[in-house]
Each structure stands twice: as C-alpha cells, then as structure tokens.
C-alpha cells in the first residue's frame, strides 16, 4: 500500500492558551493533506477526477499527544481504508520521526456541485484510490 505524505507547517496562530495546537486546527491540517491527496494528485493531465467537489460526511479524531509550536513541519500520512460506491474513507496519522500526535479518519462523499447532490465514485477515481488502499481493506474487498 502506498501512503500519501504531506509536510504540514505549524503556524504561531495554531496554538491555544495552553501552548499547544488547538484541537480544531488539527481538522485544518487533515483538510490540507486531504486536498493535496485528492486534487493535486488526481490522476492524469486534464483529468476531471475529484474536481467536481466533495463533502465531508464524518470526521473521527484520536488525540494521542499534544503538539507544541516548533519551526519543523509535521508529517501527515494519508491512505484509503474503504472505497464504496459513493463514498470513501481516508485514514491519517499526524507525526514526526519519534512521536505520533493524532490518528484520524474522514468519510468523504463526492459531490456534483451543478446538481447539488452526491455522486458515485468514477472508475478512474477508483483506480487512483486503490493505489492507496490499506492492505487489510484490500483483502476484505477481495474476500467479499
């Protein structure tokens, strides 16, 4: 399985009154990594994959360790744990070389902005997503 790697800088304004990254800011970090994964890395030149929009149906976050401000960025690893007909689940870890700060997942629903409704995942998008599919999830999909 391939993981998408995103280097995320910390900003002074990310800190809360206790001197660590505010819990809400972690959602922004996840969003930056997800957008980088789904849009900048969308397959093929001129491809329309993932460009029609998407909405977040669910976030789940486990805060493992506090993260304090520093000049070095954190690494956000992203991968796919589930591909459905009209949704996908992305898992994340926010960490550095020695410490895991956050484990999270997001359910994303592709969305047709012109029709203002959810849409199905295209065949081209599935090919791209399978490259990042967790090995355990891939075994479950084959067995089903």
- Global outline: globular
Radius of gyration: 16 Å
Quick one: how many beta strands?
Answer: 6
Number of helices, counting only DSSP H or I runs of 4 residues or more: 3
Q: How can the largest sheet be summarized?
A: 6 strands, antiparallel
Helix content: 10-25%
Average pLDDT for all residues? 90
Estimated structural class:
alpha+beta
**Strand percent estimate:** 25-35%
Characterise the protein shown here.
This protein has 144 residues and is an alpha+beta fold. Helix content is 24%, strand content 33%. It is built from three helices and six strands. Strands 1, 2, 3, 4, 5 and 6 form a six-stranded antiparallel beta sheet that branches. The protein starts with a strand and ends with a helix. The model has no long low-confidence stretch (mean pLDDT 90).
Gist of the model:
The protein has helices at residues 23-40, 123-130, 135-143; strands at residues 4-8, 54-63, 74-83, 88-95, 100-112, 117-118.
Keywords:
144 residues, alpha+beta, 6-stranded antiparallel β-sheet, 3 helices, 24% helix, globular
Strand and helix layout:
Layout (H helix, E strand, L loop, with lengths): L3 E5 L14 H18 L13 E10 L10 E10 L4 E8 L4 E13 L4 E2 L4 H8 L4 H9 L1
Antiparallel strand pairs: 1-3, 2-5, 3-4, 4-5, 5-6
